[in-house]
Design goal:
Elements lengths: L1 H26 L12 H30 L6 H28 L8 H28 L3
Helix pairs in contact: 1-2, 1-4, 2-3, 2-4, 3-4
C-alpha cells in the first residue's frame, strides 16, 4: 500500500511539473522582479521530496535487480533500474544545486542564462524519471 501511495505521489508530481513547464509561458511574463512563476514555490519542495523518495526506491530497485541477475547478462529490469537511479542522481544534483542557488541570492557565480538552462533541463527530465518510477510502483506487487 505504501509503495502505491508513493507511486501516486511521484506520478502526480511528474505530471504537475510537466504541465506547468509547458503552460507557464502562456500565463506568466518574466521580468527582473519575478523571473519565474510563483507556482514553482509550491512545486520545488514537492520535487525535492519526490527526488529523495525516488532515489531511495530506485536504489532498492537496483539492489533487487542485481540480486536476481547473478552471473546472467544484462536484463531489462537491471537496465531500467540503473537508468532510473543514475538519472535521478544526476537530476537530483542539478536540482539541489539550482534550488539552493535560488534560495541563496548572494551566490551569483553562475550567470542567469546558465541557471535558466539548468532549470529547463531539470523540468524536462524530472517528469520522465519520476513518472516512470511512479508507474513502476503502481504496477508492482507489494
Amino acid at each position: 500500500m505504501l509503495k502505491r501511495t508513493i507511486g501516486v505521489f511521484l506520478t502526480a508530481v511528474a505530471a504537475a511539473v510537466a504541465v506547468h513547464t509547458v503552460l507557464e509561458p502562456l500565463y506568466h511574463v518574466s521580468g527582473d522582479g519575478q523571473p519565474y512563476s510563483p507556482v514553482w514555490n509550491i512545486l520545488d519542495p514537492l520535487m525535492a521530496v519526490a527526488i529523495v523518495l525516488g532515489l531511495v526506491l530506485g536504489y532498492r530497485r537496483k539492489q533487487e535487480a542485481e540480486a536476481q541477475g547473478g552471473e546472467a547478462g544484462v536484463t531489462r529490469e537491471y537496465l531500467a533500474a540503473n537508468i532510473q537511479l543514475f538519472g535521478l542522481l544526476c537530476v537530483g544534483i542539478l536540482f539541489f544545486w539550482s534550488w539552493f542557488n535560488l534560495l541563496m541570492p548572494a551566490f551569483t557565480a553562475p550567470g542567469d542564462d546558465t541557471v535558466s538552462l539548468v532549470w529547463i533541463l531539470i523540468d524536462a527530465t524530472l517528469p520522465l524519471l519520476l513518472g516512470a518510477m511512479g508507474i513502476h510502483l503502481l504496477r508492482g506487487r507489494e
